[in-house]
Design a protein that fits this description.
Blueprint (H helix, E strand, L loop, with lengths): L2 H21 L5 H21 L1 H4 L7 H24 L1
Helix pairs in contact: 1-2, 2-4
């Protein structure tokens, strides 16, 4: 996937999250959307940093990064669950 396609997916996701936060009457929808995406990426980072203790590792790829950014913490939980069953 070209870099502009990745940027379009991330930008579109942020606009979608901002719209959802706007509809749910949040005061700062773009800030909430950005925090939601950053929380997912930070969760993925912490899962991989703690892999030495927990023996749980999620390979970092474009798919896992987009899942963490788009899905937030539930997206990382989904990756952990799929890692468990597969």
């Amino acid at each position: 996937m070209p870099w502009w396609g990745i940027a379009a997916v991330i930008g579109g996701t942020m606009i979608l999250f901002a719209f959802l936060h706007f509809v749910s009457k949040n005061k700062r929808p773009f800030k909430r959307a950005l925090l939601s995406m950053c929380a997912g990426l930070l969760t993925l980072l912490f899962v991989n940093l703690l892999s030495g203790f927990t023996k749980v590792y999620i390979p970092v790829s474009l798919l896992s990064l987009l899942t963490a950014a788009i899905g937030g913490m539930p997206g990382v939980t989904l990756l952990l669950f799929l890692n468990l069953i597969l």
